[in-house]
Amino acid sequence: MATIAVPIGTQAEQREAEAVRRPALSEYLRWSVDHKIIGVQYGISSFLFFLVGGAMAMGIRLELLTPGLDLMVSGSAYNSLFTMHGTVMIFLFIIPMWAAFGNFVVPLQLGAKDMAFPWLNAFAFWLIPPAAIIILMGYFVTPAEAGWTAYPPLSTLFSGDGQTLWALGAHLLGISSIMGSINFIVTILNMRPEGMTLWRMPLLCWAVLATSIIAVMATPFLAGALTLLLLDRVAGTTFFDAAGGGDVLLWQNIFWFYSHPAVYIMVLPGMGVLSEVLSIHSRKPVFGYRMVGLSSMGIAFVGFTVWAHHMFTSLQPELRIPFMITTMIIAVPTGIKMFSWLGTIWGGKIRFTSAMLFALGFLSMFVIGGITGVMLAALPFDIHVHDTYFVVSHFHFVLFGGSVFAIYAALYHWFPKVTGRMMNERLGRIHFVFTYFGFLFTFFPMHIVGMLGMPRRVAVYDPAFTQWNQLIGIAAFVLGFSTFIVVYNVIHSYFRGPVAGANPWRALTLEWATTSPPPVTNFIDDPIPYEDPYGYGTEAATAYLDAVDETFRNGAPASSR
Amino acid sequence: MAQLTADQLAASVHDDHGHMSVEDSNNNLKLGVWLYLASEVVIFSIMIVGYVLLRINEPDIVAEAHEQLGVGLVTANTFVLLASSFFMVMGLRAMQQGNRAGMLRWIGLTALGGIVFLGGQYIEYRELSHLGIVLGYDLESQWSTLGMRFYAPTFFHGAHVFVGVLWALEVLRRGTKGRYDHNPIGIEMFGLYWHFVDVVWIMLFTLIYLV
Amino acid sequence: MAQATHQDDGHHSNTVRLLGRQITVEGGVYTVVFVALAILTVIEVISAEGLKGAIHDFPDAAATLEAIKAAILLIIAVIKSTLVIWFYMHLRDEKPLLAVVLLLPLLIAGLSILYLLAIPPGGYSL
Q: What residues does A455 pair with on adjacent strands?
C-alpha cells in the first residue's frame, strides 16, 4: 500500500503551540482579514437578515389569513412589505450566506492559508452592513413598493425615496458581490496545492467557481441598470420612461440579464454543498464527478441565455419560442446533477445525520422546483399561470427548498469545523421535521391556488381562496417557528456541544485535515491532498482517514480548554 | 512523514500570514485586475447600448448634434488620452529597467494627460449645455432624448479617468518612496486600468462622435 | 505587425521588426504602437468626415454609405483597441486565461446588446 501522506506537521509540541483556539466572540465584531472570521461574519449577519426577512414573511402570511385588509393599512403597505421581504432574502440573506460558506470552506478545501486578497475580502464584507442599513432605512421613509424586481414605471414614477435608497443599497451589495467573486476566482484558479488539478478539486470549489464567474459577468448588468434607474429617479433622465423617449422594457431586459444568472448564483453553491454532504454521509464517491463539475459550468453559461422567459408576456412574440427552448435546455445540466446525487447515495452506507437529512430534503424539494420550472418554461402554461401563486411556489421551491435546505445542510455539516463542537443531532432532526413539513404545506398548496387563479403580490383576494390561504398561513408559522430550533441549537452547541475533533465525519477533503477550529494559519505544514477528494470505501482512503485521526488525536480542543 | 527541524518550523510559522512568493502574488493581483476589468466591460456596454439604440432609431438627432459640435475638440482629447496611455506603458517600462526617475517622469505625464482630458471634457460639456443638450428630460428641447444617452457613458468614462488620475498620483507618491523598485506590480495594475479606460474611450470616440 | 526581436527583452528593446525591417526607436514596440494608434485615429476622423460629405452628396445611397461608414469606423476602433490590449496591457505575454477573462464578458455583453438592438423603435406590436 502506498505511504499515507498526512497533511500536517506531526510534532506534539507544535500542535500544542498552535493549539486550537476559538476566536473570541469580539473578534467577529471587528475588522479582520482572516477568511475564517470573515466567513462567520458573513454567516451571522446574513442569518440575522434571514430572521428579518422571515419576520416579514410572517407579516405577509398574517395579512393573507383573511381575504380583506386587516394587518396592513393599505395595499401600498403590503407592496412595500413583500418588496422588502424579497430584497432582504435575496440580496442580504442567500447571496451573502453563500459567501459565508465559500469564505470559510473554500480556502481550507484548497489547502490555502487564506484567500488570494484578504483585505479585499474583508472590504467586500464590510460593504454589506452599510448597504443593509440603507435598504432597511428606506422601509421607514417612503418605502420601495416595486417588488424586488423594481420594474419601471413602478420604481420610477410611483415609488418614494425608499426606492432610491433601495437602488443605492443594491448597488453597494452588487459591488461587494463582484469583489467577493473576483477573490474566489483568483483563489480557486491560482492557489490550489500541488497535486490538486482542477479535476481533483472538491465539488464545492467547482460550484463556487461557477457561481463567481456568473457573479463577475452578471452583476455589472445590475450595476449598470441601477445607475440608470438612479439617474431616472434623481437626475431627471428618462431612460425607462416611455413618455420621455425612454424604454420601459430596457429595465426588464437588463435586470433579467443579471437576475436570471443570479438565480444560479443563489443555488449553485447549494448544489456544491449537496455533492459534498451526500458523498460524505453515504460513504460513496460522487457519481460522475466530471459531469457534475462541468454541469456547474454548463449552468453558468446557459444561464445567460434564458433571461427573457421572465418576460414571456412582454416579449416580442417571435422570441418566445427560442427562450422557451433555452430554458428547457438549462434543465439538462441540472438533471445531470440530480441523477449524480441519486447515483451517489444509491447503495451507499447512508447515515441520517441532520446534514444528510437536509441534503435529502433538498433533493426532494428541488426536484419539484425544477419540474415546475420546466412547466413554467412551457409558454402556453406560463401564460396561463403568469403572475400567480404558481410562480411564487416555483421559486420558493427553488430558493427555500433548494438554497435554504442546502444552507442548513452546510450549517450542520461544517459547524463542527467552524466551532470545534458538534451540533445536537436530536434537535437537528426535530428542526428538519418541522422545516420539511412546514415548508411543504406552506408552498405546495400555492401551486394549486396559483392554478386556480390567485394572483401574486395582492393583499386582498377572492374569498374563495380563504381556506387555502389559512392552511398556507398556519404551515408558514410552523416553518417560521422551526427557525428558532436551529438558532437555539447553534447557541447551545457552541457552548455545550460535544467536542468535535478534527474530522468527525471522516471526510477526505482538506478542510477536515486540520484542527477544529483551524489555527489562524489553517495548516501548519503545506497540506497534501488525498488523490481523490471523494474516494471513499477504499483501503487507502481508510488508511488516510486513520492517519488523520491519529495525527489529531491529541490536538482536539479538549487540550486547549 | 516529514520531521520538521526547529528552523523549518520557524520558517513555516513565519511564512504563515498569507505570504506567498512574489510571483504568485503578482499573478493573483493581475488576474484580479483583469476580472475587475471584465466586469467593467459589462457596465460600460450597458451604458453605451442606450446611445447606440438612439443612434439607430433617431439618426437625425445624432447627425444634428455632430454638426453642431464638430469633431476637432474631441479628436484632440482623444490624442491626449492615447498619448497618456503611451506615457503609462513607458513608465512601467522605465521601472522594469530599474529607472525610477524615468518612471516618475512618465507617470507624471500620464496623470497630466488625464487632467488635460478632463479639462477638454469639461469644455465640451459646457459647449453642449449652451446648445441645450442637458442630462435631464426637457419637453421643450429637441435634444431631450440625446442628452441622457450621451452624458451617461461619457461621464461614467470621465469618472474613470478622474479615478485614474488619483491612482496615478498615488503611484507617484509610492514611487518616490521606492515602493516599486523591486516589484513594479503596483504600476502594472494601474497600467492595466489606465489602458482599459483608454480602450473604452477608443470605442466611445468611434461610436458616439464618429459613427 | 510589430514584433519584439527578443522575447525576454520584449519590454525593453528599442529595436523592433516591422514589416520585415529592423527599426530602432526609443521605446521600441510601444512607440511603434503609439504611432500606429495615432495614424489610425487620423484615418478614422478623415474617413468619417469624408463619408459624411459623401452621404450628404449622394442622398440616394445614404443608407449604404452609412453602413459602410459604420463598418469601417468600427473595424478601425476594434483594431486600435486590440493594439492597446495586446501590447500595452501585455496580453501577448500573458497566459491565455486572461484572454478568456476578457473575451467572456465581451461575448455575453455582445449577445445582450445585439438582442437589445433588435428591439423595434416603437416597442413591440402584437
A: A388
Closest by CA to A90, choosing from A262, A212, A221, is A262
List phi, psi (to 5°) of C15.
Answer: -110, 130
Residue B10 in domain: no
Residues of chain C in contact with residue B205, where contact means CB-CB under 8 angstroms, are 77
Q: Which amino acid is at B105?
A: R
Q: Which residue, chain included where needed, has cell 416580442?
A: A316
Counting the structural domains of chain B, the total is 1
Residues of C in contact with B202 (CB under 8 A): 77, 80-81, 84
Give the SS3 label for residue B136. coil
pLDDT in tens, A18-68: 456 788 888 899 999 999 999 999 999 999 999 999 999 999 999 999 999
Task: For residue A144, give the DSSP letter.
Answer: -
pTM of the shown model: 0.91
CA dihedral sign of residues A149, A150, A152, A154: positive
User: Which positions in chain C touch A300 (Cβ < 8 Å)?
Assistant: none
Distances (CA, A) of A8 to A496, A499, B9, B12, C26: 28, 20, 12, 12, 54
* Distance between CA atoms of residues A433 and A78, nearest Å: 31
Q: Could you give phi then psi for residue A511, rounded to 5 degrees?
A: -65, -20
Distance from the first to the final alpha carbon of chain C? 52
- Chains touching C (at least 3 CB pairs under 8 A) are A, B
Looking at the domain assignment, is residue C77 inside a domain?
Answer: yes
pLDDT digits (tens, 9 = 90+) for B91-118: 999 999 999 999 999 999 999 999 999 9
Return the CATH number of A28-560, one of 1.20.210.10, 3.40.50.720, 2.60.40.1180, 3.40.640.10. 1.20.210.10
Residues A111 and A104: their CA atoms lie apart, in Å, by 12
Spatial separation of the C-alpha atoms in residues B201 and A430, rounded to whole Å: 60
| Contact (CB<8Å) B145/A231 | no
Any idea what the CATH number is for the domain that residue B65 is in?
Answer: 1.20.120.80
